[in-house]
Write a structure and sequence with these properties.
Layout lengths: L1 E5 L3 H12 L3 E5 L3 H8 L10 H10 L3 E4 L2 H5 L4 E4 L14 H13 L4 E5 L7 H15 L7 E5 L9 H6 L4 E5 L2 H11 L9 E4 L1 H32 L3 H9 L20 H14 L5 H26 L8 E5 L14 H11 L3 E5 L4 H8 L3 E3 L12 E4 L11 H7 L4 E4 L6 H6 L3 E3 L5
Parallel strand pairs: 1-2, 1-4, 2-3, 4-5, 5-6, 7-8, 9-10, 9-12, 10-11, 12-13, 13-14
Antiparallel strand pairs: 6-7
Helix pairs in contact: 1-3, 5-6, 9-11, 9-12, 11-12
The structure holds nicotinamide-adenine-dinucleotide (NAD).
Length: about 450
C-alpha cells in the first residue's frame, strides 16, 4: 500500500519504517525541516534500539522517503497516518493544535480519496473533528466529502522496544465507521500478526479511549507500588517481597509493579492529565486517575526529600557535588520528556549543588533542557570523581553492576540514592556505602 505519515517523531518514524519493512511505500512528512534534512543525510534523530537498521534497509530499497512537503507525501498515498505530538495545554487537556493543523492541510492538499488515521493519542471525538476539518476544506474546493474516510488507530509501542513492539504487537486496535476500512487496515497489519491475529476492530470512540485507559491503568499500578513503597519503609516491610507476592497472582501479574522515583516520559503524565480533563468535560470524575497522578507528584517529591534530608544533616546542598546516573525517563531511550531526573537535577542545582550527569543516550536532550546548570559527562565514572553522593535515576543495564570499589575510591563520600532499586541493600552496606533505595529496609 502507499502510505503517508505526518509527524516523523518517535511514533511516526517507527511506524513508517516498520510499514515500509513489510513492503509498503512510505513517505514521512515533518514540519521540522532540520529533522527531515538529518534523515535525508542518513542520521536517525532519535535513539531507539533496532530502528537504524530498519530505516537504512528500507531507504536503500526505495520504500522509505522523507519530505517537508505534504503535497508530495499525499500524491500517491491512499492511507495517511497522523502521528503528530499532542502535548498538554495549560489545563492538562490534550492540545490538538498540531492534529487539527495536519487535518486542515490534508483537506487543502489531497487530490484523491484517502483514509486518514489518527495514530496520535487523542481524546474521544478527535477523529471526527479531523474528518470535519478535512471535509470543510474539501467543500471549499468543491470536492465531494466522501473522498475522506477516517479511522482511529492508537499506538501502543514502548520507547526502548518500539521496533519490536511494532513488529510483534500485543494487539492492533482500530476504530472505524465502516467495515471496509477496518478490513483494509487489517490487511495492512496482517504481516505483523502472522502467528496469531491480534487485530481488534471497534467503533472510533472506544478505540480512542482504549489508549488513555491502557496508560492510566499502567500509571496507576506504578503509583500504587510507589505509595506502598513508602508504607513499606515506615512499617519495616520490603516492597520487593510485596511485589513478588502480588506479581505471582495470575489475576495481577508481575508487570508495572516496580517501585521507583516516580513515573515520567512523554505519555503517562500527559495522558493521565488528559483523561482527567476528559472526565471533567463529560462530568464523570476520573478519581482513580486523579489520585494516581497526584500520588506520582507526591512520590517524586518524597524521593527528593530523602536526598535533601541527607544533606541537611551535613550542612546543606550548597557547594556539594552530586553525580546523577541516568537522564532518560527510562532505559533504552533518549527521551527526557517529564523525566524525574530533570526535576531532581533542577532542584539540586537550585539548592547550590554542583550537578554532574551521565546518560548513555540522553545527554543531548538533557542539555537542551538544563544547559550548563549541569556538567554533562562522557562516562558514568567521570561524574563520580569527588562526588558527595550518586543518584541513580534510570535503570540502564550498564548501571546495574558497576565497579563499586572504584566508585568508593573516587567519591568524596560513599553515598548512593538508588531510585531504581538496582542494588542489594545488604551488599551495599557490607561494601561501606550509605545506601538509600525505595521501599526496602
Ligand atoms: P514527537 O514529538 O516525537 O513527534 C511528533 C512530530 O510531529 C514532531 O517531529 C513534529 O515536528 C511533527 N509535527 C507536529 N505538527 C506537525 C504538522 N502539522 N505537520 C507535520 N509534522 C508535524 O511525538 P511522539 O512521541 O512520536 O508522539 C506522537 C503521538 O503519539 C502523541 O500523541 C503521543 O502521545 C503518541 N504516542 C507516543 C508514544 C511514545 O512512546 N512516544 C507511544 C504511543 C503513542
Amino acid at each position: 500500500m502507499k502510505i503517508a505519515i505526518i509527524g516523523t517523531g518517535y511514533v511516526g518514524l517507527v511506524t513508517g519504517a516498520c510499514l515500509a519493512d513489510a513492503g509498503n511505500a512510505v513517505c514521512c512528512v515533518d514540519k521540522n525541516a532540520q529533522k527531515i534534512d538529518h534523515l535525508k543525510q542518513g542520521h536517525i534523530p532519535i535513539y531507539e534500539p533496532g530502528l537504524e537498521e530498519v530505516v537504512k534497509h528500507n531507504e536503500d530499497e526505495g520504500r522509505l522517503a522523507y519530505t517537508t512537503n505534504l503535497d508530495q507525501a499525499l500524491e500517491e498515498a491512499t492511507i495517511c497516518f497522523i502521528c503528530v505530538d499532542t502535548p498538554p495545554d495549560g489545563d492538562g487537556k490534550a492540545d490538538l493544535t498540531n492534529v487539527l493543523a495536519a487535518a486542515k492541510e490534508i483537506g487543502q492538499k489531497m487530490k484523491s480519496p484517502k483514509v486518514v488515521i489518527t495514530k496520535s493519542t487523542v481524546p474521544v471525538g478527535t477523529t471526527f473533528k479531523v474528518k470535519e476539518s478535512i471535509q470543510t476544506e474539501l467543500a471549499k474546493r468543491g470536492v465531494d466529502a466522501t473522498w475522506v474516510d477516517v479511522a482511529s488507530n492508537p499506538e501502543f509501542l514502548k520507547e526502548g522496544s518500539a521496533v519490536e513492539d511494532f513488529m510483534k504487537p500485543d494487539r492492533v486496535i482500530v476504530g472505524t465507521e465502516r467495515e471496509e476500512i477496518a478490513e483494509m487496515l487489517h490487511q495492512l497489519y496482517a504481516p505483523f500478526m502472522r502467528k496469531r491475529d491480534r487485530f481488534l476492530a471497534m467503533d472510533v470512540a472506544s478505540s480512542e479511549l482504549s489508549k488513555y485507559a491502557a496508560n492510566a491503568m499502567l500509571a496507576t499500578r506504578i503509583s500504587f507500588m510507589n505509595e506502598l513503597s513508602q508504607l513499606c519503609e515506615r512499617t519495616g516491610a520490603n516492597v520487593t517481597h510485596v511485589r513478588d507476592a502480588l506479581g505471582t497472582d495470575p489475576r495481577i501479574g508481575p508487570d508495572f509493579l516496580y517501585a521507583g522515583l516516580g513515573y515520567g516520559g512523554s505519555c503517562f503524565p500527559k495522558d493521565m492529565k488528559a483523561l482527567i480533563q476528559l472526565g471533567r468535560e463529560y462530568h464523570i470524575p476520573m478519581t482513580i486517575a486523579a489520585s494516581a497522578d497526584e500520588a506520582n507528584d507526591n512520590h517524586r517529591n518524597w524521593f527528593w526529600q530523602k536526598v535533601n534530608a541527607h544533606f541537611e544533616t551535613s550542612g546543606g546542598l550548597a557547594g556539594k557535588k552530586v553525580a546523577v546516573w541516568g537522564v532518560a525517563f527510562k532505559a533504552n531511550t533518549d527521551d527526557v520528556r517529564c523525566a524525574p531526573s530533570l526535576t531532581l537535577m533542577d532542584k539540586l542545582a537550585a539548592a547550590g549543588a554542583t550537578v554532574l550527569a551521565f546518560d548513555p543516550a540522553a545527554i543531548k536532550n538533557g542539555q537542551k533542557v538544563l544547559g550548563d546548570r549541569v556538567t554533562w559527562c562522557s562516562t558514568g565514572y567521570d561524574c563520580i570523581d569527588g562526588a558527595d553522593a550518586l543518584i541513580v535515576c534510570t535503570e540502564w543495564r550498564e548501571f546495574r553492576s558497576p565497579d563499586f570499589d572504584k566508585l568508593k575510591a573516587s567519591m568524596n563520600a560513599p553515598v548512593i540514592f538508588d531510585g531504581r532499586n538496582l542494588y542489594n541493600p545488604k551488599t551495599m552496606r557490607a561494601l561501606g556505602f550509605t545506601y538509600t533505595s525505595v521501599g526496602r529496609p
